[in-house]
Design a protein that fits this description.
four-stranded mixed beta sheet; about 10% strand; about 280 residues; Cyclin A, domain 1
Amino acid sequence: MLKTLTRWMRRTTGGPRPIPDALWRDTLRHYPFLRTLSAGEYARLKRLSEHFLDRKEFTGAHGLQVTDAMAVAVAAQACLPLLHLGPADAPEDALHWYDDFVGIVMHPGDAVARREFMDAAGVMHAYDEVLAGEAMHGGPVMLSWPAVQRAGDHAEAGYSVVIHEFVHKMDMQGGGADGAPPLPRGFMGARSGLEAARHWYRTWAPAYERFREQVVMAQRFGAPAPWLDAYGATAPAEFFAVACEAHFVQPERFAEEFPELSAALRAFFKQNGPLALNG
């Protein structure tokens, strides 16, 4: 358990204690996509991160000692999707998207999870899956610390395991993870929730199928591999999470390759206002 950070961030009558400026600057320096924000967005993200740390508990697995720097790195990336979802005077209200859990488990490397599935013939199969992160419905988030760091080292790939797992949590607010998160009122001009859901499906389903075909052609027939992480071809929920990673880490390239998805995500994350992301 991260006792030092728990004491440091414990809620007081004045709210969560601030993240030290030097630690905040070091975090921004490591993750290039966090350095593209406006001054107003920096202030909002820092406030969101402070409230996030006040509400969550970090645990290190396999003897890992979770430091303040590690926790702040997770908080800053986890709060990036929420940047415009709360009111201007209380951006921390957007943290309700993450209210279904408290614990964040940090691993010193990739984790190995035992999986089972039944095939069409009714035969049960067991296998090990290597994970850089996992978001459990109604439960904690697991993250590999080396994978968290890789988001800063390989930003050109549109990669952030933290954003990936935390947008899964947002997706799960509508039930199970299916790539269709709860949509805001009036989403992209929709007059009803049903109309909004239909618009979302008409936008995402064809894009997912096209991406799956690209991945298959690359893996089986040697066609050029798509830029977006091929893991997104495994399920609609993973396509949504991988797309969100790229949208926040490499927004210009993502918008160039997936203009309709970019527009949908900008609407969902309410990025078209005066504090919209640069790039």
